Amino acid sequence: MTASPSAEPPVRVGLIGAGPWARDMHAPMLAAGPETTLTAVWARRPEAAALLAGAHGAAVAGSPEELFDSCEAVAFAVPPAVQAPLAVRAARAGKALLLDKPLGADLASARTVAEAVGTAGVVSQLVLTKRYHPATRAFLAAAAAAEVTGARSCYLHGAFLDGEMATGWRLSEGALLDLGPHLLDLLDASVGPIARLRATGDPRRWVELTCEHENGAVSQASLSGSVRLPRARARVELLGAGEELTWDSAGAGHRESWPLLRSEFAAAVRTGVPSPLDAARGLRLQELIAMGTRD
After folding, report:
1. Which pTM does this prediction carry?
2. Please, what are the domains in the chain?
3. What is the pLDDT of residues 193-206, one digit of tens each?
């Protein structure tokens, strides 16, 4: 009988990045185990890397290559323009990749990541946190049995107005690149593959997407990180001849997604079989985003 992934030694994961997302999500999730252990942290700011590593009993790597030498897999919590070239280096070093979304700052860099993963034959997985929540899995299972005529969705919050996330690429690129992967992934998975996409508005304020799906259904998505709300609002409504199906982020907190995300990544590393949420899926989402940014 084949041993279960939980019977295997924990996967040794190195973390690239020491910002808010690394501090609040990646490091505590990976260090909590039991399927993974956080071995080392590297960041462009050595003092931030030391602080985060010290909080979780990990080493501080002096370079990405030193981090690669200490681990089996690499997790990324850095801006997309930083992630893409480092992910290529990690793949070439034979490391499994736990990738943030989007894969890269643009479609070309996302393609280089996906191609590097394919050439190296390494396991990859996307941190699309909402996909690892049991409520999301139940919603997608119900959607697979439904005939959907149309869908409405939104992902709205005010994090770009102030706070730790109101910096860098999120402010310059806006909601389409940051929030778009989550919502487009859910629509593509629940309604059916998206064939065409049109965008209107300003991604730095509010952008509206109209998606035409291969099965003839039409969906709409509203995205903004610049509206003041008591809490983030993310919702998908599927409508057709049957009963309405809904998914709401109010029942899909990040922490509740950690156990499944961690266990599925560890299983993928140990078996060599990636989940469907891999770099190829990330490239597919980036292709959809590119449709929305064309003139």
Report:
1. 0.94
2. 5-128+255-277 (3.40.50.720), 134-252 (3.30.360.10)
3. 999 999 999 989 99
